[in-house]
Amino acid sequence: MPVRSALSPRPHARLRRAAAPLAAGALAVSGLTVAVAPAAVANPAGTGLVISEVYGAGGNNGAVLNADFIELYNPTGAAIDLNGLSVHYRSAGGGSGGSPYALSGSVPADSHFLVQMGSAGANGAALPTPDATALPAFSMAAAGGQVYLLNGTTAVTDTGDLAGRSDIVDMVGLATASSYETAPGPGAGTTQSAQRSATGADTDNNAADFSLAAPTPTAGGDGPPPPPPSDVTIAEIQGTDAAVSPLLGQTVTTRGVVTAAYPTGGFNGFVMQTEGTGGGTDDTPGASDAIYVFGSASMAVGPEIGDLVEVTAQVAEFGGLTELVPASGGVVKLTDTPEPVTPLAAAYPTTEADREAHESELLAPTDAFTVTNNYTTNQYAEVWLATGDTPLWQPTDIAPVGTPEYDAVVADNDARKVVLDDGASINFFSSSNQSIPLPWLSLANTVRVGATATLQAPVILDFRNGAWKFQPTQQVTDEGADVVTFSDTRTPAPEPVGGDLTLATFNVLNYFNTTGEDFVAAGGTCTYYTDRFGDPVANRSCTPDGPRGAAQAEDLQRQQDKIVAAISSLGADVVSLEEIENSVKLLGETDRDDALSALVDALNAAAGSTRWAFVPSPDAADLPDLADQDVIRTAFIYDPSTVEPVGGSRVLVGDADFSNAREPLAQVFKAVGGLDADGFAVVVNHFKSKGDSDPPATGDNANGEQGAFNGDRTRQAASLVEFADAFAADRGVAKVFLTGDFNAYTQEDPMQVLYDAGYTKVASDQAGDASYSFAGLSGSLDHVLANDAALATVTGADVWEINANEAVAFEYSRYNYNATLLY
User: Fold this and answer.
1) Residue 795: CB partners within 8 Å, gap ≥ 6?
2) What's the CA gap between 808 and 375, in Å, rounded?
3) Given this model, what pLDDT does residue 222 score?
């Protein structure tokens, strides 16, 4: 008997992307709870450095000063060293304000130290010459937000849990800030700053210690005098074998050829590289010959690719990327004819050190590349690539955790991954950007996981948002065929597998014939995911026990059309289904098989004949209590012209191991006209997922490499073995197949339980097939297993990769989400 695995749409990991450089604004974070900060090191006795004044309205309309600032005060009788300290800012709600700015120098006794935070704006008087200027500039809110003086440079990432932060020297939370000392201080504005009492008293109560008054910024620290601009090479700025520039914070003058320019799309900068570098050799081993130049001042002269420019700027680090941040007039176009930069033709660097050595350089990689992740392609226009001819692999799909083979996969993934970006920081999910057509994707350019990506032009090796990236030399706004082309890996049907009967398993990803609109009409409540015009498309949350699929009838039709087309192309005789509506759980429903029947009707309508039938549910008395059933279930459909059920179906009842999962469903099938004894049992499964809002039982997430609830899935596997073996014995059949969504990769603990019990995974005849893609790693959570008697009848198998490889933008649930219609 052949076995086909036709596997369905699965969600990938939602990869978060950090905010763009601060010129684009801070990223707001909601849902934080108010927390009281730990007592500051400074105290009422005046024995430590404190934050003495905060002004965040610099340059705003009506502002009295043109720049934001934080003022520090030393209330003691001796100088305080600033080296090792930093200042950090977050919005009132906790939104990121960028990386902490490292301080240097010292604050004399009874003196102030002025730190300019924001870039100088058009409104207000000039800020007095500060002791230090934060680069990149912090964009502070007028009311003040949350300001920290830190010992070290570890950013505050959770303003709701500061009690464990022993490195907070002092902090100020103002107005509606989500963290503060005891109580928040008053919100500042355009004409007033928040000021500590003149004595520097710190009672660890922001409300008591701060009041509003006209800003009085005062400098006077012994900061390092700004060195005169020095002529250096880009390689000297980047440094040898260094992630951070050895000239950090210094003002330098350098020159180079513009190799990439981003006047639009939010990057707001350009890349320059030393004349005559590149080609097949590296003139400065260990040090990059290119650098990113950021900010509005960098774009003032409109640099174009090929221009020779001279830049005078301060050296900065932003999110791991070394950059120059020039002031007004800091970029000058030169009239000399430059020696051209040639793309470095070499294999993609496999280590962090080698990548740092070529940061921002123009590359012409000699590798082959394969798409390994497209989950964020329709949000940030990112396409994750892997060198070589395979995607990155889920380690536990290859080998058990802790084995040398497992470690080898982890190392291989780290060596091969890189992200192709679009030269912009646009979030296409934002309502203000949904009218901008998506780059890369089109109905003809599908950019699937596993597709070959062939670079057609040189790229910049960039680092941002915590990942190494290939940036095009200018923003991509179309399919980008001049930058990269992708092979089309879609296939119209599974590969032939031979045999007389075929068995498949298919996850229909929340097929509910009850729409959200229907559910609301029956008395329930729903919230929705909407298209770019606000029309509901898919259900976000419906209560109580509501549908999870389509929001309205037209959305259900789009979802159903896709499922019907896929199942109709399988050529299968028996198909086990996962994630179909358990209709009896919904308001007003009495027929458990209502959605299953509707799907079969749609399949037969498409076939023009009675091509499909479904296996009815057991009687209610033979099912788990309704309260213990999930809103989704498993099911069987089959071709009545080739196979027939033997007896009724059976569900595992009364097993506590399945209290958080769908109970196994078993059925015996035989060829039409065959003997009952020649039948084969199929048990369809849907184990507990790897992630959930409920906490796993103690020990069930001890091995994080296998996801949450690994212990539950392992116990479910043991119960499944007992149920399947007992069912086969009761029905008098020798051949048993286990199918479905096990939520366990091939070499994880639950699968080992099944292997130890005598079941073998039926592997695809095509090497490298996978049913799932998560966080850029391919593997299989969906499986067909067979005992020895069943395995002896298998002639072939295929995983038909139809949906997990696709960008989520093609799903019915993303219909009309962008100006580019991709359904």
Assistant:
1) 1, 2, 497, 498, 499
2) 6
3) 66
Q: Give the pLDDT of residue 486.
A: 98
CB-based contacts of 183, cutoff 8 Å, min separation 6: 205, 206, 207, 208
The share of the chain scoring above pLDDT 70, in percent, equals 91
> How far is 150 from 97, CA to CA, in rounded Å?
14
**For the purposes of burial, counting CB atoms within 10 Å of the CB of 225, is it exposed (0-12), middle (13-18) or buried (19 or more)?**
exposed
Alpha helices in 467-534, H assignment, sequence order: 516-521
Please give the model's pTM, rounded to 2 decimal places.
Answer: 0.78
Mean model confidence pLDDT for the chain: 90
pLDDT for 185 beyond 70: yes
Query: Please, are residues 633 and 661 in contact by the beta-carbon 8 Å criterion?
Result: no
CA atoms within 13 A on the CB side of 385: 26
113 by DSSP, 3-state: which?
A: strand
Burial class (CB in 10 A: 0-12, 13-18, 19+), 492: exposed
**Which residue from 564, 553, 562 is spatially nearest to 518, judged by alpha carbons?**
553
**What type of residue is 669?**
F
Helix or strand or coil: residue 16? coil
Amino acid identity, position 776: G
Please report, for residues 270, 274, 306, 309, the alpha-carbon distance to residue 303 in angstroms, rounded to integers and kept in the order given. 8, 15, 9, 8
- Per-residue HEC secondary structure of 640-672 comes to CCCEEEEEEEEECCCCHHHCCCEEEEEEEEEEC
Instruction: For 317-352, give the DSSP string.
Output: EETTEEEEEEEEEEEEE--SPPPPPB-B-SPPP-SH
**Cα pseudo-dihedral 157, 160, 166, 172, rounded to 10:** 90
How large is the average pLDDT for residues 701-727? 90
What mean pLDDT do residues 696-714 have? 77
Helix, strand, coil share (%) of the chain residues, nearest 5:
15, 30, 55
Q: Is 7 helix (H, G, I), strand (E, B) or coil?
A: strand
Write out the two tokens for 648: 């009724």
Alpha-carbon span 183 to 626, nearest angstrom: 49
The token pair that represents 106 in the structure block: 């010292």
**C-beta of residue 213 within 8 angstroms of C-beta of residue 195:** yes
3-state secondary structure of 61: coil
- Three-state secondary-structure class, residue 506: strand
User: What token pair was written down for 700?
Assistant: 């069930």
How far is it, in rounded angstroms, from Cα 429 to Cα 530?
11
Among all chains, which residue has been given the structure tokens 């990506």?
A: 453
Strands 50-55 and 417-420: unpaired
**Number of Cβ within a 10 Å radius of residue 222:** 15
Collect all residues with Cβ–Cβ distance below 8 Å to 322 and sequence separation of at least 6: 237, 238, 244, 245, 288, 291, 292, 315, 316, 359, 360
792 within 8 A of 736, measured Cβ to Cβ: no
Measure the CA–CA gap between 577 and 542, rounded to whole angstroms.
Answer: 23
Q: How many helices (H) and strands (E) does the chain have?
A: 13, 44
**271: nearest Cα among 284, 262, 281:** 262
CA distances from 508 to 549, 577, 757, 802 (A): 10, 7, 29, 12
CA gap 387, 372 in Å, rounded: 10
Query: Would you state the structure tokens that stand for residue 288, as one six-digit string?
Result: 């990059």
CA quadruple 231, 235, 240, 242: dihedral positive or negative? Answer: positive
Phi then psi dihedrals of residue 42, to 5 deg:
-65, 155
278, amino acid identity: G
- DSSP 8-state code for residue 118: S
CA 658 to chain CA centroid, nearest Å: 30
How many Å apart are CA 606 and CA 624, to the nearest integer? 34
Q: Closest Cα to residue 719, out of 659, 630, 763?
A: 659
